[in-house]
Amino acid sequence: MSTAAAFESVTDEFTFVVGPVLATALCTGVHPAAGLLTEAALTLVGGLLFAAQRSTQPAPRAAATTGAPHRSALSVPGVRVLAVTFLGIGAVFGGMQVSLTAFSEEIGRPGVNGLLYGVFAAGNMLAGIACGAIVWKSSPRRRLIVGYVALTLTASGLWAVHSVPLLAGLGLLVGLSIAPALISGYTLVDALVPASARTEAFTWLTGAVALGQAGAVTVAGQLADRHGASTGFVVPLVGTVLALATLLALRSRLARVPRDGWWHVVSVTASRSRWTDRPEYVSMERR
């Protein structure tokens, strides 16, 4: 799961590295609308090709006949914790996107925006490659906490930087910190919920990132317009601080302990699981 999540992160960030450069070249060298039209065409063609392939899709599962009511992935405390913390990652993406643009306009070099965001995305991509290649001995929960600590520390200096080289370097560090947190969170889902609910859990986490990004874009944009680009960079910091505080306060809900050769995910908030009749456990799977 960790390798798969890392691969997804790398391919996602690759588009953020290449996309700004390609869009800038098309808009300035071909036509102002060329970048948008190319993006629309690639999205349409790629989406259709993805929808048409069947070789890697999982086999359909028969509907459960036990009579047990369906439980949402959000009924698992750990998934709710991850969803809240992933809002912080979205705040970083949205805040960086708007604030880097505002910074570039503020210094009179709008063309440098693509370069700065590309460096930020490149850091995320490189960290994703490393996370996928390393055979980890530490737990995903510990890696998640370390990732958020690093993300908070690196984001704390963005508002004080006023030069392109320094902002590019710090943006690279922020990008390097995102992938470990993102990948570790997705890896934890593998143990927090049964297979039948994983797709829903992944969807909640992806939606949390998108929601955090949308909110950050709105807030950072207003701050940058009224008080300058540096205030927009406060949004990623606030988002990561709140996410880290939530994670540290509720980290016990993400814990798992071995028992008789099986892994059980501990729920410290419920005396009985919503996924199984055994007390104290949310899910279990062979490791």
UniProtKB/TrEMBL annotation:
One of its GO terms (cellular component) is plasma membrane. Residues 78-287 form the Major facilitator superfamily (MFS) profile domain. It is a multi-pass membrane protein. The keyword 4Fe-4S does not apply. Keywords: Membrane, Transmembrane, Transmembrane helix. Pfam families: MFS_1 (PF07690). One of its GO terms (molecular function) is transmembrane transporter activity. InterPro entries: MFS, MFS_dom, MFS_trans_sf. It is found in: Cell membrane. The chain crosses the membrane at residues 81-103, 115-136, 143-161, 167-189, 201-224, 230-250. Its main location: membrane. Signal peptide: none annotated. This is Major facilitator superfamily (MFS) profile domain-containing protein. It comes from Streptomyces fulvorobeus.
